[in-house]
């Protein structure tokens, strides 16, 4: 599903340049649930941004579902993001003057799906994350866990190839974190490919594979026995 | 163009901070309001002054003879001469593009002695010997009977057309006027018509106290021979009398052996030139109105642009999220532009409406209090309103352009980073 070959990225900071990713190679197959771990500054967010087409690598190859991702202009990148990727952010990033349903329907709106269908689909995904009754509430009327579940529903709405989660539990207490992870695991059980960036060991162990980044290189890439989050809920 | 979700969003954004939106809108509102008011005030002044010109054919000059100031062909300077009826035909032969050439003779004058008698009543009136064309150059409406015609001229009939003011002075109220006789300096003329002139202002009353008689009868009755007191000459439409007046004067100078360079021997009054001068004054006024109005509008537009920039800044993160979710940058740009245009047009329309209301009020007050000198019926044409709308759309586009550009310049990753 995701194929990365010798990926390099550096940031210019005035006169100095900071080499963040130093030749990464790895691939993710369909249906995997991968955790990318690393301390801050290890380059994990940069990697996620490149995978999410929010940023571009300096050199190296990136293939997503057989499509080479390079030389994208903004319009094309937006289209690919919409079609291939679903984002889950640490700070939820819901649009606060839109109701939960409208937030979930947003990616479909960009696909020019007719209004009625959009709303039906949004309700469907909201009920999947258990928030059907909250469909018409604004984000600030929801708890943190609920917000993240709305965000997950939104990421799923466009039926993307890959879900990218950037510290999805970073702003949540551990109980809610497990709830969210339980949801992510369930979505993965349905066959969705999910990438989770985290620095929490217990969250990482709820995935099926852990990729350890340190100073821009992969120091460890191992399969783990998945810890089911449901046992903590 | 019509997209329910987009409009919903535009309204959401603009109504999320009412106070700011209204303040911003006020800049544009005020600009267009001032523009409308200035233009209509200019138009009101123009209407007022044009009314004073009345229906007079403005492409007209009046010409009379004076003493020469240069000796020529053995004739001394300081010599007086008088236009003759031959001059009329030679002008017609030599100068093309003339519509009317009316030779005129005149008795009496402003505040002159009594010169007209009817029974026991007397009055001092201007008496003109005229050709029928004069009614086209100095329009008047015939209220009874008829005006002079060419049979009168040819048969030298002693008939007269008198003004309503003359009727008021010489006749009792309700008395039959047509067919009666008035005695002008001892000569009887039969009244065949009465007229009323539209011109108002200072000489409005004087204009009603005139008596028109056929030129030929006038010459014979008052012993003028072939003399012509002065002439009223109108050029064809499309030719300005100002351009050809020198040719006309050259002809009469030649006829009367006046030095061609003698500027003072022939006096004239060029109505067209005066008219042009007034016209160019209005042109200048319109320019000032547009200049001031558009500058005020511009400051309003800059205000809108500023606020849109702030809105974009405030929504940086939101825009980042939308782009991460796959919104086309063009769609974001369009959104910002539409917000800006919408705000400008709504506030502009309010400005136009209030301007129109204001003009309506002024007109109502003017109507209630009767006419005012040099000001009448302030108004703006539909063209101006459409022009103002176009200006608004363009300025809305301009106002939104920079913010829209800056909205899509922010890369989604940077937008998302701002926590």
UniProtKB/TrEMBL annotation, chain A:
GO terms for molecular function: ATP binding; ATP hydrolysis activity; transmembrane transporter activity. Residues 2-233 form the ABC transporter domain. GO terms for cellular component: membrane protein complex. The keyword Ribosomal protein does not apply. The keyword Transport applies. It holds the Pfam family ABC_tran. Transmembrane segments: none annotated. CDD domains: ABC_MJ0796_LolCDE_FtsE (cd03255). InterPro entries: AAA+_ATPase, ABC_transporter-like_ATP-bd, ABC_transporter-like_CS, MacB-like_ATP-bd, P-loop_NTPase. Belongs to the ABC transporter superfamily. Macrolide exporter (TC 3.A.1.122) family. This is ABC transporter ATP-binding protein. It comes from Euzebyella marina. The lineage of its organism: Bacteria, Pseudomonadati, Bacteroidota, Flavobacteriia, Flavobacteriales.
TrEMBL record, chain B:
One of its GO terms (molecular function) is transmembrane transporter activity. Keywords: Cell membrane, Membrane, Transmembrane, Transmembrane helix. Its main location: membrane. The chain crosses the membrane at residues 21-41, 287-312, 341-362, 382-402. It is a multi-pass membrane protein. The keyword Membrane applies. Residues 21-248 form the MacB-like periplasmic core domain. The keyword Disulfide bond does not apply. Residues 291-409 form the ABC3 transporter permease C-terminal domain. This is ABC transporter permease. One of its GO terms (cellular component) is plasma membrane. It is found in: Cell membrane. Belongs to the ABC-4 integral membrane protein family.
């Amino acid at each position: 599903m995701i194929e990365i070959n010798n990926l390099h990225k550096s940031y210019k900071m005035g006169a100095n340049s900071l080499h963040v990713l130093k030749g990464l190679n790895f691939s993710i197959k369909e249906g995997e649930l991968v955790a990318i771990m690393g301390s801050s500054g290890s380059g994990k967010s940069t990697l996620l941004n490149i995978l999410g087409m929010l940023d571009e690598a300096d050199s190296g190859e990136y293939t997503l579902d057989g499509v080479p991702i390079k030389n994208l202009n903004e319009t094309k990148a937006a289209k690919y993001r919409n079609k291939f990727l679903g984002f889950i952010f640490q700070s939820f990033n819901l649009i606060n003057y839109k109701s939960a349903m409208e937030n979930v329907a947003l990616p479909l709106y960009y696909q020019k799906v007719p209004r009625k269908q959009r709303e039906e689909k949004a309700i469907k995904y909201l009920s999947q994350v258990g928030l059907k009754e909250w469909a018409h509430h604004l984000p600030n009327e929801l708890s943190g866990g609920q917000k993240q579940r709305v965000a997950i529903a939104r990421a799923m709405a466009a039926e993307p190839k890959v879900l990218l989660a950037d510290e999805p539990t970073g702003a949540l207490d551990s109980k809610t974190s497990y709830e969210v992870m339980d949801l992510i695991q369930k979505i993965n059980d349905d066959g969705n490919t999910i990438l989770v960036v985290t620095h929490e060991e217990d969250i990482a162990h709820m995935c099926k594979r852990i990729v350890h980044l340190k100073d821009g290189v992969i120091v460890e890439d191992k399969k783990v026995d998945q810890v089911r989050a449901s046992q903590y809920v | 163009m019509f997209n329910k979700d987009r409009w919903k969003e535009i309204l959401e954004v603009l109504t999320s901070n009412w106070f700011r939106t209204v303040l911003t809108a006020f800049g544009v509102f005020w600009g267009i309001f001032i523009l409308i008011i200035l233009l209509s005030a200019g138009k009101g002044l123009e209407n007022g002054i044009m009314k004073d010109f009345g229906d007079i054919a403005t492409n007209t000059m009046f010409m009379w003879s004076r003493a020469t100031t240069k000796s020529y062909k053995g004739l001394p300077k300081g010599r007086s001469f008088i236009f003759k009826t031959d001059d009329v035909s030679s002008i017609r032969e030599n100068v093309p593009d003339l519509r009317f050439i009316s030779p005129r003779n005149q008795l009496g004058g402003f505040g002159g002695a009594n010169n007209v008698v009817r029974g026991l009543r007397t009055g001092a009136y201007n008496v003109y010997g005229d050709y029928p064309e004069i009614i086209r150059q100095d329009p008047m409406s015939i209220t009874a009977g008829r005006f002079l015609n060419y049979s009168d001229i040819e048969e030298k009939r002693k008939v007269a057309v008198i003004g309503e003011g003359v009727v008021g002075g010489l006749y009792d109220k309700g008395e039959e006027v047509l067919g009666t006789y008035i005695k002008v300096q001892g000569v009887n003329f039969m009244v065949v018509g009465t007229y009323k002139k539209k011109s108002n202002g200072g000489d409005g009353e004087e204009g009603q106290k005139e008596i028109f008689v056929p030129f030929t009868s006038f010459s014979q009755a008052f012993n003028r021979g072939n003399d012509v007191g002065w002439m009223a000459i109108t050029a064809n439409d499309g030719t300005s009398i100002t351009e050809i007046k020198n040719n006309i004067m050259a002809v009469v100078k030649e006829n009367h052996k006046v030095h061609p360079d003698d500027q003072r021997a022939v006096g004239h009054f060029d109505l067209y030139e005066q008219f042009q001068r007034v016209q160019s004054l209005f042109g200048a006024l319109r320019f000032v109105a547009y200049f001031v109005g558009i500058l005020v509008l511009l400051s309003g537009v800059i205000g809108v642009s500023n606020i849109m920039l702030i809105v974009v800044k405030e929504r940086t993160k939101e825009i980042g999220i939308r782009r991460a979710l796959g919104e086309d940058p063009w769609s974001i740009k369009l959104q910002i532009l539409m917000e800006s245009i919408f705000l400008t047009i709504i506030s502009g329309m309010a400005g136009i409406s209030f301007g129109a209301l204001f003009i309506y009020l002024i007109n109502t007050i003017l109507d209630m209090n009767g006419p005012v000198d040099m000001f009448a019926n302030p108004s703006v044409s539909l063209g101006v309103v459409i022009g103002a709308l176009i200006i608004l759309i363009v300025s809305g586009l301009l106002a939104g352009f920079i913010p829209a550009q800056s909205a899509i310049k922010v890369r989604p990753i940077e937008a998302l980073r701002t926590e």
